[in-house]
Protein: O-methyltransferase MSMEG_5073
Organism: Kingella potus
Amino acid sequence: MSTRPAADIHGLSAYLRQTGTAEHPVLARIRANNATHRMGKMAVAPEQAALLAWLVRLTHAERCLEIGVFTGYSSTALALALPEHGRITACDLNATYTSAAQQAWRDAGVAHKITLHLQPALITLDSLIAEGRAQSYDLAFIDADKPPTPQYYERCLQLVRPGGIIAIDNVLLHGRVLRPPEAADPPAVAVMRTFNAALAHDSRVIPLTLPLGDGLTLLIRQ
């Protein structure tokens, strides 16, 4: 039996990043800043953003929808992957966090591709539907507060075209969805446990959940 220690998770993540496309300098800066941010755990995992950017290129996506911006890692990665005429509709509530995202967009030269809506995401999503934007998005990324996830998902099903992709982050809640329910669980745990279980029976999508970051679910809209 080998006595060599297994690679630590951080070392493995760094190694895997080296085997892929080089991280854009602006993305590297956002990641470094998030590491010291008091709410840095809200940030998307770099490997998740890399996969989403890869999917944008693979599917020749032109229109993306992001629910939850934080400091802009995923939106910057998506915008860099989009063609010059590509556009992102970004939804968030926090002007302080998204000011950092907007600076990152400018630094990366992609600010013209992104429209930020600073209001509750459900208001923005309902407005887009009312404006006739149904089935106009190629990819939607949900990375926001967990309790409204089912509502975000239902709106995205209307806004994403057939054959398009809906991606949802933090579906594992650091493993809490796997454990038996506890009285101290926040409401998000029960919501996500029920939501995750229902996806396998939802004929409107083809689901795939990957153990990237805190769990990333990818869905093809039927």
